[in-house]
Amino acid sequence: MSAIGRYIKSQFPLLYFPIVSSINKLIALSRPYSIYITDGLGGSFKRYFIEREMPSKIKALKNGLEPESINVVDVILTRLLHYPDESNRITMTKNRAVVGGLLPVEERSSKDLINQQLKETAGSIKLARGLMEESVFYFYHGLKLLPNQVTARLKGQHFIDIGAYIGDSAIALNSYHYSKVFSLEISRKSAERFFSNLSKSSISSDKYELINMGVAASDNEPPILMFDTGSAGFSTYRKTGQYDKIEVQRKSLDSIVEQYGIEPKFIKVDIEGAAMDFVTGAKKTLIKFRPVLSIAIYHNPIEFFDVKPTLEQLLMDYTFLIRKLSSEVKFNQIHSEVVLLAYPNEMREGAVLENRALNFQRSIF
């Protein structure tokens, strides 16, 4: 800190922090930033484009989607093709146009609305503001974008949170009044913070259960030795680091659901590249319980192109949506927080039929 800074802070403490904040904002406006495509969580998109028959892949991904989802797919595809992989990231100034144009969520008006809502929410959440991600505390993993008839039917149901991190999702999703959330997290460091954060948030211990385990395509997968970073990006695809080494146990979700007696009506999946393992190991659960789904599909090309067509073959009469749950475009946020949302059509149609029956009863009596 300069002598001028120390003087202002000592003599005018009430002015010091607003001044520093304003200066930092001005610096941020002109500071260049990097844009790149994630390629270390299960494969390079560029290599995938070269090795696969892409017209058929893109057609399968877009099949049955409504116009907004198709626009998200088109914009993200343009960015994936244009921007370099992480190892070759480029630096750009903020006044340079984003390739593919901005999605509605990335427009200034949307950013301002999201930031204002997060500021208001921060007052009632016992988490540091920096840990309150848009995808979690504004979009609620996409639940905010679904029909009210669908989300109303989640009240009092079991939720599964795969990739629970420090409990941020369990805290945010409590707004949808789950009866109990079963949170899966492979990091022991994150697990410690999970219990602390839910306790601070006054969520009763009978409303959640933390399962220190990863999901796998089958029950025959051996444990993995990993370096426990405790970060939001902790992944089975990251094999090196300077952290405590832990052994990660993995099971199929079908096995976990049976073991813990879970009857899931909503499943959130954000597991840093392993979404297809989830799908492969959860087929019985998905068919039996027909839950609402929110699956992050941006980490690698297998997630992005294969998860939705696979689920479409597995789950009849579902609606699928693809949305970007972040207003940012810096760094890998140019394509991150893209999720696949899915819900069974009977959840919406059943509510409509119930309302019609109720109105008919009222007309009689």
Structural description of this entry:
By secondary structure, the protein is α/β, with parallel strands linked by helices. It has one domain: 3-Layer(aba) Sandwich (Rossmann fold), CATH 3.40.50.150. Helices cover 43% and strands 16% of the residues. The protein contains 15 helices and 13 strands. The strands form 4 sheets. It has a 7-stranded mixed β-sheet, sandwiched between helices. Strands 1-2 form a two-stranded antiparallel ribbon. A two-stranded parallel sheet has the order 6-9. Helix 10 links the parallel strand 4 and strand 5. The chain is globular. The C terminus is likely disordered.
Feature tags:
365 residues, alpha/beta, Rossmann fold, 7-stranded mixed β-sheet, two-stranded antiparallel sheet, 13 strands, 43% helix, disordered C terminus
Quick structural summary:
Helices cover 43% and strands 16% of the residues. With 365 residues, it is of the alpha/beta class.
Number of domains: 1
Low-confidence stretches: 353-365
Strand order of the largest sheet: 5-4-3-10-11-13-12
Q: Tell me the major beta sheet.
A: 7 strands, mixed
CATH topology: Rossmann fold
DSSP summary: helix tally: 15
- In CATH, the homologous superfamily goes by the name Vaccinia Virus protein VP39
Overall shape: globular
What is the CATH first-level class name?
Answer: Alpha Beta
Helix content: 40-55%
Query: What number is the mean pLDDT?
Result: 87
CATH architecture: 3-Layer(aba) Sandwich
Cα-based radius of gyration, to the nearest Å = 22 Å
Structural class by sheet pairing and helices: alpha/beta
Q: What is the β-strand count?
A: 13
N-to-C CA distance: 76 Å
Elements, N to C (H/E)? HHEHHHEHHHEHEHEEEEEHEHHEHEEH
Task: Give the amount of beta strand, in percent.
Answer: 15-25%
